[in-house]
Amino acid sequence: GIDVIDIGLVTTPILYFATLYFDADLGVMITASHNPPQENGFKPVIKDKEGQRNPTTPEIRKITEFAKKILDTQEFVGFGREASLIKADNKEIIEKYVNMVIASVLKFSLIIDRESTTSSSIFKIHKHNLSSRDASVKVVVIGGGTGTKVVSQALVNILPKRSLPINIIVDSTDSGGSTGRLQGEFYNKWGVSIPAFGDLMSVVVSNLEEWKQEILEYRFKYEKFTIEGLSTLRKSIKKIYADKVDSKEIDEFIALLSKYFIFIDRELIGKRIITLSNQNHSVKNMLFLGVMVETKAIEEGKLDRKRFEEGLIKIQAILQSDVLGVPISLLSHYEVILSAVLKGKDRVWMNDTAIETEKVQGQVEITGTIHSKPYIKLDFVDREEKLIRPYADSKVIEIINRLCNKDLLIISPGSDITTRLAILKMGGICEAICRAKERGVKSIFIFNPTVDLESLGHNIFSLLKLYEDSLDYKIDDLFYYLIFNKERRIDKIVDLINREKSQLRRRENVMRGKTILGLFIPTEREIEILNKRGFKIYVENLGEIRKTRVRKAGRIAYF
User: For labelling, which of 11, 26, 123, 161 has a CA lying 20 to 30 Å from the CA of 254?
Assistant: First the structure.
């Protein structure tokens, strides 16, 4: 006797799905649809070591001959255990199949064969789930910088009907650039430590109209007050976009910013809390401070957690952005220092000085130090160089915990140590990602297309080991998809990564410390090994992911 599970009226693909779902050895579709009577019959599918397959013609012939023999001779009849028939919940198995399909694709067009009674009835039951896919999918991106902005722009293009913002989790321990200088002034004069907010603002700005981006990315040079710079900037933008943007719209946007910049000029610059002239501060950074100080999220000697979160949401609303920037924690580089361990003692060049060391500490130093031995681990230390284990903000864990099997979690391109590992190593993050993967969330790790100073000396597998040794987690416990670049033209990749990084250093091929040393392009053998570990691999031209909103989002759609 055999055990038979009756799943009711379904389409053939659902039968194939149910055969795997129930771990059955054989599935049989009894068909009587649009075929002529003489061609109706059975559609079998059998289990094998690869999953399942349709039986070959010789195998079908053997089954037919064996069945005929039993009918003719009655051999085996009455022997063995009693057979059983189980009625499965038809609606439940259909729902599980539909959810599996929806969870497997990001964007799709749908054509329904309404002449087919089966598919038409299934469509009626699940019409809402299928049609609301774009609006309901939740997206979390982990990263920062140009690579993350490019990914978020592509996602906004792919998922235009959004009811929820794309949450982008960024590092809070950055210590360089305009943000680092502003953090220093608040720390020294107000005694308050502010998490890094440069990447936080960059990702929020990334999907706005081009003219708004130009305003927000503008850097003050010789102006003493922000309003002075805004007045000059308004005239320039109106001239550049005279034929593209209504001048009234530009005036309204500048007026919106002015509300907070008047406050900055009076309360921060006027009282000498911060300095504007010759500091290269951007409009977007000034907007961040204006909102945070005006709402009292940042006060002398105090950072209010709740008001800080409300301030981030307010900035998103002011700019009408599809992206919400979320810091991994409210700790800054004053509490958490990155410590990158080298593979043995090495003679390195740091700030144009040669020293011998086994580790490099500090975000700016790790990014810009020239070394010959690869980094093999990232640690967190305090100001006394003692190892510490800081934890991610509870808001970040909550965002990841809300993801379900139809949602996306993406590690975007970015600096391996000072951005991606600096985020992933925060306590609680890997645990949350691991649980999300177990729930069926599509967790995606995009390999950086380029090799720079932070990944110097690594191949694909040693770089994965760097992550695993730093996180105490196997990468395959965290991510299901790995995406690699296949473009070999280095000039295109440099352009992709450094499109907006115009401040060149005095070294060849260096942009803000990013030395392009090669590409991570997997061989067929490497792909085979990664497949055996359970990863699903995509190798695409990452150079086709474009920045501007008017162009097609590009090959990022293969998620």
Answer: 161
